[in-house]
Specification:
alpha+beta, Phosphatase 2c, domain 1, 2 domains, six-stranded antiparallel sheet, five-stranded antiparallel sheet, membrane, PPM-type_phosphatase-like_dom, Bact_Sigma-Reg, PPM-type-like_dom_sf, transmembrane
Length: about 375
């Protein structure tokens, strides 16, 4: 009799046993998790049941509870007051525990949506801050992102119509499209086209979800929904290009003034870059066939761009006066040298003080300071002290 060994089956059997052990381990983990959940439910019900049992036992079995004297009534009221207080405290503790859990989940989700920016991207120092008009929300209708790509550093700053939690869906649609498009599109117009298509898809889906049987044409979304967008691209040589869809133009900040640049641009400490009429906001009207890129000149060492949403300039004080942004920037950049984080902190502090601690609209601020050491040859004589 000849015996053969099935050696080829041993690895297969070993892998099957390993998979079986892993499945058994996952099953046991799920069972343990369900057991813990049941135990938590029992413990949550245990304290109210105990308090209720104490109250019923006192009322039925304690002779003092059967008496009608003043002292007996006072003791009975004290017992039931203690029972009620214990129940209220127990419910309050459970609600606070659930609220903390909800806030942790919401904070994690909002942090992924509008993630914190790094302190530096490709030699550009960054400082950003934002506050939502809805109390308890860390993200509202304002959006920003800074991403380093092979085409240069690309920046988006946007403001969704409306504010607070209702605008988060539009923020997610625009930011998600931007984070993909900046790496794929070699030119800014291509990035803007993708943002426009993402906005149109979002509005169609929202129209279908909100009006499934209203007879609205899903290809014609709600016209009132739109988002203003400012796209910037800062090349490796410092040259800045922009596309603006209804958004406020940024401010150019310098540590100090100086002579005029070629082309006649002044050298003031704080300068508003009004670079022509912007394009229509995304979602309001279709973009034109041609998207001319605006050349903003070089961002030299010693210079920074201050980007913001209109909630900054629209913030009012108790007397109805608008926030003086230009004056606040002039005050914040008075010291030399000035770090972007310091400028942002000073402006943000003045804004909150002006609005009595809480603006009526969403607010976002973003500063990009050129911290690079390599300077293009035509601009070497124009460099001021770095921010």
């Amino acid at each position: 009799m000849i015996r053969t060994k099935a050696r080829g089956n041993r690895p297969t059997l070993g892998r099957a046993r390993a998979r079986a052990r892993r499945r058994l381990g996952r099953t046991e983990a799920r069972r343990l998790g369900r057991s813990r959940q049941r135990l938590r439910r029992l413990l949550a019900l245990g304290l109210p049941t105990a308090w209720g049992a104490v109250a019923i036992t006192y009322k039925l079995a304690c002779p003092l509870a059967q008496q009608n004297g003043l002292g007996a009534r006072i003791v009975t009221c004290a017992v039931f007051f203690a029972v009620g207080t214990g129940l209220v405290l127990h419910v309050r503790r459970g609600l606070l525990r659930e609220l903390r859990q909800i806030r942790r989940v919401a904070g994690a989700a909002q942090g992924v949506l509008l993630r914190p920016l790094p302190p530096s991207v490709d030699g550009l120092n960054i400082a950003a801050a934002q506050v939502s008009a809805d109390r308890g929300a860390s993200v509202g209708g304002d959006l920003y992102e800074v991403i380093g790509t092979e085409h240069g550093v690309r920046i988006v700053m946007g403001d969704v119509r409306g504010h607070g939690l209702a605008a988060i869906g539009t923020v997610a649609a625009v930011l998600g499209s931007f984070r993909e498009a900046v790496h794929d599109e070699p030119e800014l117009p291509g990035v803007l086209r993708k943002l426009e298509r993402a906005m149109a898809r979002h509005l169609r889906e929202r129209a279908k979800a909100e009006h499934p049987s209203s007879g609205l044409d899903p290809d014609n979304p709600v016209a009132e929904e739109f988002v203003t967008v400012l796209l910037l691209e800062i090349g490796h040589d410092g040259e800045t290009r922009a596309l603006n869809c209804g958004h406020p133009w940024p401010y150019l900040l310098r540590a100090d003034g100086g002579p005029a640049e070629p082309g006649g641009r002044g050298r003031g400490r704080v300068e508003h870059l009004g670079l022509g009429d912007p394009l229509p906001p995304l979602g309001a009207f279709p973009l034109p066939a041609e998207l001319p890129v605006v050349r903003c000149g070089p961002l030299l060492p010693g210079e920074a761009l201050f980007l913001y949403t209109d909630g900054v300039e629209d913030a009012r004080d108790s007397a109805g006066r608008f926030f003086p942004l230009h004056a606040a920037l002039s005050e914040a950049t008075r010291a030399r040298p000035t770090a972007p984080q310091a400028v942002l902190g000073k402006v943000f502090t003045q804004l909150l003080a002006h609005a009595d601690g809480f603006p009526a609209d969403d607010v976002a601020l973003l500063i990009l300071a050129n911290g690079r050491t390599q300077i293009p040859a035509p601009y070497r004589e124009q460099v001021a002290t770095p921010l």
